[in-house]
Fold each of these.
Amino acid sequence: MVDKIHSYKKYKEDYIESVENPEKFWGDIAEGFSWRKKWNTVFKHDKENAEVKWFEGGKLNITENCLDRHLEKNGNKTAIIWEPNNPDEESRYITYRQLYVKVSRFANVLKNNGIKKGDRVCLYMPMIPELTIAMLACARIGAVHSIVFAGFSSSALSSRINDSECKLLITANEVYRGTKPINLKAVCDEALEDSPSVEKVIVYRRTVEPTEMKEGRDVFWFDELQKIENFECDAEEMDAEDMLFILYTSGSTGKPKGMVHTTGGYMVGSTYTFQNVFQYEEDDVYWCTADIGWITGHSYIIYGPLAAGATTVMFEGVPSYPDYGRFWEIVEKLKVTHFYTAPTAIRALAKHPISLVEKYDLSSLKVLGSVGEPINEDAWHWYNDNIGKGTCPIVDTWWQTETGAIMISAMAGITPLRPTFATMPLPGVQPALMDENGKEILDSPAEGRLAMKAPWPSVARTIYGDHQRYKDTYFSAYEGMYFTGDGAYRDAMGNYRITGRVDDVVIVSGHNLGTAPIENAIDEHLDVVECAVVGFPHDVKGNALYAYVTKIDESVTSEDDLRKEINDLIRGSIGAIAKLDKIQFVSGLPKTRSGKIMRRILRKIASNDTSNLGDTSTLLNPEVVTEIMDNVIL
Ligand code: WT7
């Protein structure tokens, strides 16, 4: 491992070097990992084809970096502390050596079930250590994991499985979130009716509930393990540019995008940023509350922390069970030093009596983190005052599924903070603010659209099966640059504050949701003619969803029933996370003369911000705007 950046001065030096001489900079960092064979070239960029390669020709296996290389010195160090949903159940402590054995053994299970390098394996699992084991076992043998967040519906699961033609699905029978049982296996069974590529399902028994198994297709995790006597599994040799995983994220149009991350650059990026942003030290206990079904869990519960030899906490439950003190109870119990969560969780917790915080000893905490959406002033101060007691730096980390690793963030205790600002770009990251004419804004302070001038090691390499869409989405807005989809403000010091999405993606409770697939789900209803979905500010979720719907004249369904049926359709096609908070029935949607729905106006109305609607006279049907405003649901 290379040394962490330990001063603001060093940050500035490294930043300059990373821009002026990226090959030397990243090559030196990559030297700190274990490679079977060194790379031929550090960095190659074919702008024309939007092709990026890092450490090409280098051979490695990421699990040798996350497991094997720690065994000699740190074999008995705890790699994972697992905290169950139900506080009466035992926590599990898994050392690096134990994790190594479990991963190797399960990797042999995968092989035994016909999985080879390059095969896609879908994981639809709760937050249990077996998810990590399955994930790393895939990486061990060069299979590509595609983890689907276990809150997605069966049809969302099925379409993700089909897009990448997964051969194997790994799941659990049932899981509790709070007091609510969720039958994951039943969701899988439904999904598999439409997913013929899956030949086998491995089911981990999380509860004692009877589980229906399909003969010839479904096998139990435990039974499969019993067949394996070999607790070692040689790691497959991977090229730095071989695929490590696919992770789906919402797009502003159409179906979800399977972002492809490759082995070498992702490992270097996630580990380097983990070490420097969080400034993890030996014996610290690091806890990121995200679900591994999102990129935050991939990079900052598993790959980054394990490659850095850290102790990482995995929590199965929810912040509200048995009560809203659960997070703080865990911090006290495990003596957590680093706590990394989302603004939506902070806002929800801040609504409950402060006694639920004060009950617990939080003195172990050294560093706090925030991720997923802009953190507002109130939430920042509540977090800083009540959780950090004014002594823990808050790293507000801006990044994306596509970026693979943190891009803009303070380094805890090293670089200066500014509340509600993600602050400065990390070394290797070259942000640019772009104006409406596609020109870079060089002055500060300024506001514009956020782009990146050069690729970094952990950038996603493509969209699985659709490189053209990758080019169009990320590399066509601004010549030679990566477009983030976010707007940002830069202060005179060069600190960035992310202002939110500028496309048709809405971040609800930190979850990235495209409005197009939600609209498609609503349109499925036979009584619906047309609809438009926009986000509006919400004090806990950050944003919530507002739908404007026109219905057919003959509709006899009551509006309340229709609202319910629409939300049922959304739950079925995407999942409960995409539920609409408000549905307004309208006689028409405001459209331009070319027939394009004016979402900008609908967004303003839903946000109760109608003082300046802009020019509506060019609309085909300006009269509906008044009608919509008169009946708006606030
Ligand atoms: C979008 C990416 C990788 C983080 C988990 C979400 C928003 C993320 C911040 C932040 C303001 C943020 C952006 C981004 N976002 N972190 N610290 N401040 N906004 O990953 O699902 O790919 O969503 O989340 O809008 O584009 P994701």
Amino acid sequence: MNIKKLVKPNIRSLSAYEAKDIACAVKLDANESPYSAPAGQPARFSVQKNFQALNRYPDPEAKALRKIIAKEFSLRPENILHGNGSDELIYYLITTFGGPVLYPVPTFSMYGIISQALGEKKIEIPLDKEFDLDLEKILTAIKKYKPKLIFLTPPNNPTGNCFSSEKILKILPLFTVHCSLVVIDEAYHPFAGDKGFTPMLKDYKNLVILRTLSKIGLAGLRVGFLLADKDIVNEVNKVRLPFNLNSLSQTIASDALKDKALIKSNIRTIIKEREKLLDELSEINGITPYPSEANFILFKTENPAKIYKGLLKKGVLVRNLSGIVKECLRVTVGTPEENRIFLRALKKCLSI
Ligand code: PMP
């Protein structure tokens, strides 16, 4: 029996998201934080507190966690929806509103993968030479295809830059004419300088913001959240699986967010290290790094496959993105020691 014949055509032609488990000493491929927050003891304490409750289902509405998040953003819990990572919320958004789904490319691959899995039309608009939005092409595509959802990602993965806010502000008001929701995925916002788009939620009923704890030291918890008008939250909540966020994740995330001093100081360290890494990469002959406001740096090199393999041989894992952005690799900012090891290995690979 050929199982592929049973599979829906849109799934048959889909490639699964690649997250290979590759052994390495220095892991700089997945845009995680090199620092766990909370580290060690506080996390164990949270888990112990919850142990008695593990025979019970988690709070389906994650009330305590949503209350903390609402307070942080000066919103109400009705404006917050919790997800098992923001990936799950992207899935729920496309399930709820359907396509066409418009997004610039290159960007985070899950917008396309999920659209295809759900059989929704994808409209991919290439970024311009500076990796910024091509506003004219986007506006034309909005008029032509009337997308239900537009995903924009400042800072963008994998390019690392924030798109021009003026351009995003030209797209947002189109809701009333074309009925599109604009989803601003702020997964990497903590590493960027500006305020982001959460202050604009009160001005735009069609604005949805996605945030995650994955990049700030809690990737293993799988906690993401969506911020939006309560009418949007109510609709998306209809497709949410009842117990999507387990009790341990809810408790540890709540504890971590109650006292953000550690998370904030780790973010400051990562930003400082990113700037140092950018300076040092631009000094290396044969490497062109792109400016970044995220916790990773995209860089160009003549022979990315050779450099990727060479780095891995020396125990350093980065992401080879040359199939998506010509001749480019992406490195996550690690600890000062990890970054030093990466730079030394890179220089050696280039001199071979
Ligand atoms: N959005 C962007 C732009 C990302 O890069 C990622 C993770 N790589 C996600 C969302 C998903 O994050 P989470 O771990 O919260 O599912």
